[in-house]
Each structure stands twice: as structure tokens, then as C-alpha cells.
Amino acid sequence: MRIVKDADVRKNEILDVAEELFHNNGFDNTTISAIIEKAGIARGTVYYHFKSKEDVLNALIERHCERLLEDAMQIAKDTSIPVMERLVQTLMAMNGEKNGAPSVLTQQMHRPQNALLHQKTHQTMLEGIPLILMPIIEDGIRQGLFNTPYPYESLEMIVAHVNTVFDDYSEKLTQEELHKRVKAFIFNLERIFGAETGSFYSIKTLFHMEGGADE
Description:
- By secondary structure, the chain is mainly α.
- It has 2 domains: 1-50, Arc Repressor Mutant, subunit A (Orthogonal Bundle); 51-207, Tetracycline Repressor, domain 2 (Orthogonal Bundle), CATH 1.10.357.10.
- It has helices at 7-25, 32-39, 43-49, 53-76, 83-93, 104-109, 115-142, 151-168, 175-192, and strands spanning 97-98, 101-102.
- Helix 7 (115-142) crosses helix 8.
- The radius of gyration is 20 Å and the shape is elongated.
- The model has no long low-confidence stretch (mean pLDDT 84).
């Protein structure tokens, strides 16, 4: 008997197969036919959900962002974790890297031909991240760790800055330039949130940097 699956289940199965193939073979070397063969489905089933391979990629990146934000939300809500540790863990959950390297989806998003998708992803993050981080900042304010009358607006500015400096053109920076920008970022975070010097040193782990402020 033929098994009829829910449309969303089938769509996610196709995306799972595509993500595996993109990871193993690269986006350019993966064809719709390869996705169809590995998924074991009819060609019409794929085209029912997706118009093209690029459409599959778009859906994968959207799903990827949704999952990152959901994982981050779960950490952000865990008040048993100290404020600064929770903040760093939440940000790391949004990072989207595997084993210290950008995922295939992240690499594809940065390609020039995917500029509109990249912009859309930035907008999704700009709208989603401040809402997720707000409870952590509010807890920090209640505990006397932070002191700012504009927590949400500050988070918006920070997300926009990270999207630009540490995402859009970080690959163009030398290690020395990147190191200096991270130090400046931490310096300004402490002032934006009215935190004590050294409060945000642990943010360095997000950039695969170790040590204190003077290094």
C-alpha cells in the first residue's frame, strides 16, 4: 500500500536530503535529479514543493534560521544559567557554525547571486535576535549587571553592527584587524549596557579568540 505523507513532512524530508547532498558534494555539484534519487520520490513531488534547486536552497536557509532562533530561545529562557553565561550560550546557538567553520548554507548565503536572500536573512535575524535576548538583558538590569534605559534599541544596533562588520566583510579583514574590531566591540558593549569593564570578555569565544582585554 502506498504511504501518503503529510506535505510538511515530505517537504522536510526533501530538505534533509538536499542539505546532506549540499554538504557532501557542494551546492553547484548537486542536481535536482540527485535529490530525487536519494529521496526516493517522484520528480513531480519535488516540483510540487520547490520550483528549482535555488528554491530548495532558500527554503533550507529559512529553516536553518528558524532552528537557530528556536535553539537560542530555549537557552535564553533557562534562568538557571547565570546571565553572562546564558548570553554567550544564546549567541553561540545563533552562530550557525560547525566545528568552527561556516556551514554550507552560510557559505551559499554569502555568494553574490544570493544577495537578496542574504538581505532577507539579515532582516529575519534583526527582528528575531533582540526579542530573544531581551529577557537576558532585563535579568541583567534587575541584578545590577547592566544599566541602560534603551535595552531593545541597543540590541538592535548591536545586531545590525554584527551583521555588517562580523558577517558581511569579516573575511576581508586580517587577523589583526579582526582582533582590534572584537576588542572595540567588547569595549562598546560594556558602555552601551552600562556594564563593568571585563563583563563581556567571554564574548571573545564567539570569534574563536581567547584571553583578556589586553591581548
